[in-house]
Amino acid sequence: MTSSLRFFTYASPPRFYALAGRLIPWLFGLTGLVGLVGLYVGFFVAPTDATQGQAYRIIFIHVPAAWMSMVLYLVMAGWATVGWAFNARLASMVARALAPTGALFTVLALWTGALWGKPTWGAWWVWDARLTSELILLFLYLGYIALVESIDDTRRADYAGALLALVGAVNVPVIYFSVRWWNTLHQGASISMSAAPTMAHTMLSAMLLMTVAFWAYAFAVVFLRTRAIILERERDADWVLALARQRAGAGE
User: Fold this and answer.
1) Mind listing the pLDDT tens digit for each residue in 20-62?
2) What is the gyration radius of the CA atoms in the chain, in angstroms?
3) Short-list 212, 210, 213, 191, CA closest to 200
4) How confident is the model at residue 127 (pLDDT cuts 50, 70, 90)?
5) Residue 251 zone, left/alpha/beta (φ > 0; ψ -120 to 50; rest)
6) Which residues have C-beta within 8 Å of that of residue 229, sequence separation ≥ 6?
7) Coil, strand or helix: which one is 187?
8) How many CB atoms lie within 10 A of CB 150?
9) Which pLDDT belongs to residue 197?
10) Any idea of the CA torsion for 113, 178, 70, 88, to the nearest 10 degrees?
11) How many helices (H) and strands (E) would you count in the chain?
12) What is the model's pLDDT at position 189?
């Protein structure tokens, strides 16, 4: 019961604002440290692939970015739904903050996929089932951003965005299972929950390190953006006015 109360304590915008402010520098630091180690292991320590040669190393960025694009969409849809169902202001703010970061990872996944596809398939783009559904994911992110920004009434915008995000979540399992459901050029998963990895340990280590770095980056920028949204929406609240006076007094 006590732990539950502590959790809901940070559902308060001012408490979340303070907590996020303390965590952001540590998260950016973790991003830089783990990211550099992951890139070093992936590009300089991991062995050359016998089939794809050096071109395969793009997967150390591509695969974690693709994972993040899907997971962040589900997280965004989840928070948007919580905000809609329970009229939770902070949940809707977090959903809005997640959308640009998810879109960024989707662009990164598509771009690195094209860089990998050119030497492997001989083409920058093919209308493969997984690539096409990943492109649809980008349109869903952009559509969510455009929708919530086009409606002046904040509550109506949050509700409309939640509906779009919830419906669009159907696309995520389509992306994941597309290589099983259809005859696709995209290779199958090298990492599975039900089977041992089919790659060398150093390759797996680099991929997991980059995933941790991407997660830390996502938390950092989403917290940063959420703080900005909180200040915008709560600008007339007493605690925001007090914070502004405190910053003005400190010369910030």
Assistant:
1) 999 999 999 999 999 999 999 999 999 887 677 787 889 999 9
2) 20
3) 191
4) confident
5) left
6) 93, 96, 97
7) coil
8) 9
9) 53
10) 160
11) 9, 0
12) 56
**What residue spans of 122-186 are helical by DSSP H?**
129-150, 154-168, 171-181
How far apart are alpha carbons 87 and 134 in whole angstroms? 31
pLDDT tens for each residue of 151-175: 999 999 999 999 999 999 999 999 8
120 contacts: CB under 8 Å, gap ≥ 6: 52, 55
Which of 216, 205, 209, 141 is closest to 175 using CA atoms? 141
Find all residues with CB under 8 Å of 144, minimum gap 6, and list them: 76, 99, 161, 164, 165, 168
Indicate the pTM of the whole model.
0.88
Nearest to 95 by CA among 112, 113, 83, 103: 83
Q: How far apart are CA 13 and CA 112, in angstroms?
A: 37
- CA pair distance 91, 81, nearest whole angstrom: 8
**Residue positions counted in the chain:** 252
Greatest extent of the chain over all pairs of C-alpha atoms, in Å: 64
**Rounded Cα distance, 87 and 136, in Å:** 29
* Inter-CA distances, 7 with 10, 77, 219, 250, Å: 6, 20, 17, 31
